[in-house]
Amino acid sequence: MQPSEYSVPVPSDRQAILCLHCGKPQEVGRKAMSVTCKFCSKSLKLEDVKITRYEARRVIETCGTVTIDKKGHVVSDVRCVNLVLRGKLKGDVVGLRNVEVAGDAELKGDVTAGALNVAPGAMLEGFYRIGTKTKGEESRRRRVRSLRPRSR
């Protein structure tokens, strides 16, 4: 085969994503809809999710953006890179980058995010951890886990 007969992805055909589970960055094809993390071997959905009605699930996970519109009402945990909330959400949120809450939105649950943008008038209820983890925080967590008795 001649090089002109087949297509090899070039850097412009690739995008960088963060794994929701291990947090490590990796490059994937721009047109890919799902991949497996090469570090932790977990399945990752890459599509953006838009919710315009009532939905109850165990968890919504995507390496894209989750958008909950004004008429959207979600009862679920959300793990994503970015969250745009204009409706109602009851559940814990882990946003690796940005979580935006509109003025007429309601959010009940704990939020962990890189950045939080809340418009005036939004209703919030829960515990909020904003920013990136420090190395001391990670080592403290590991220490606590290692002190727990192991079940046999």
Architecture overview:
By secondary structure, the chain is mostly beta strands. The strands form three sheets. Strands 5, 6, 7, 8, 9, 10, 11, 12, 13 and 14 form a ten-stranded parallel β-sheet that branches. Strands 1-2 form a two-stranded antiparallel sheet. The chain has a two-stranded antiparallel sheet with strand order 3-4. It contains one helix and 14 strands. 9% of the residues lie in helices and 48% in strands. It has two domains: 12-44; 54-130, no CATH class.
Overall geometry comes to globular
Number of helices: 1
What oligomeric arrangement do these chains adopt?
A: single chain
Measure the end-to-end span.
Answer: 58 Å
- Helix and strand content put the structural class at mainly beta
The tally of beta strands, per DSSP, is 14
Proportion in β-strands: over 45%
Secondary structure: helix percent = under 10%
Major β-sheet profile: 10 strands, parallel
| Stretches with pLDDT under 50, minimum 5 residues | 138-150
Output the radius of gyration.
19 Å
- Following the backbone from N to C, one meets helices and strands in this order, namely EEEEEEEEEEEEEEH
| Whole-number tally of structural domains | 2
Briefly say what this structure is.
The protein is mainly beta.
Question: Which secondary structure elements does this structure contain, and how are they paired or packed?
Answer:
Blueprint: E1 14-18, E2 25-29, E3 34-36, E4 43-45, E5 49-51, E6 54-61, E7 65-68, E8 73-85, E9 88-90, E10 93-101, E11 106-108, E12 111-118, E13 123-125, E14 128-130, H1 135-147
Parallel strand pairs: 5-7, 6-8, 7-8, 8-9, 8-10, 9-11, 10-12, 11-13, 12-14
Antiparallel strand pairs: 1-2, 3-4
